[in-house]
Write a structure and sequence with these properties.
This protein has 171 residues and is mostly helical. Helix content is 44%, strand content 0%. The protein is elongated.
Length: 171
């Protein structure tokens, strides 16, 4: 670089103007920008007044990072399946830990250990299915005068962050 370019405040590229020329050029640019006939109208906001329908007739669209489009029932079942798969992780982890600590396992013991929880869950399910048919209705048969008193004394002191005491008695 030359010595005169090192001390100059002007850039080394573009047309070289004096301060008066630059001031005059800036005034011309500003005047052109402020002229009404040269302005192009620009929309800065658009409001569509038509109401949005609550349910549209468009087909579901596959999203980039999510579940594929499904019906509500399929979505609910999918959530249950995901929750069940997460619930099986601790059982598998405990089984792996036991097998690792034992070092070797007899195949019969392994089959009994793996089948016992399943058999227990099947037995509990069978008991619960039978309890659905149990009636809680009962009848009393009396000889003589009977007085039925259905008064309820509520002595509950409800405490908690979200708590509700309902004293609605249907009589």
């Amino acid at each position: 670089m030359h010595d005169d370019q090192q001390n100059s405040t002007r850039p080394a590229f573009g047309p070289q103007m004096t301060d008066e020329e630059a001031s005059a050029e800036a005034k011309k640019i500003i005047a052109r920008a402020l002229q009404e006939e040269s302005r192009v109208p620009t929309a800065t906001r658009f409001h569509d007044p038509t109401p949005v329908p609550p349910v549209g007739d468009a087909a579901p669209v596959v999203q980039k990072d999510g579940r594929p489009p499904m019906s509500q029932a399929a979505t609910d079942i999918s959530g249950v399946m995901l929750a069940g798969s997460v619930a099986s992780v601790p059982i598998g982890g405990v089984t792996c830990l036991v097998l690792y600590t034992l070092g070797h396992v007899d195949t019969v013991n392994l089959a009994i250990g793996a089948g016992a929880p399943v058999a227990f869950l099947l037995a509990v399910g069978a008991v619960l299915r039978r309890l659905k048919g149990v009636h809680t209705e009962h009848h009393h048969h009396y000889d003589g005068p009977v007085v039925q008193d259905h008064s309820v004394t509520n002595t509950t002191t409800t405490k908690g962050l979200i708590a509700r005491t309902r004293n609605d008695l249907n009589r």
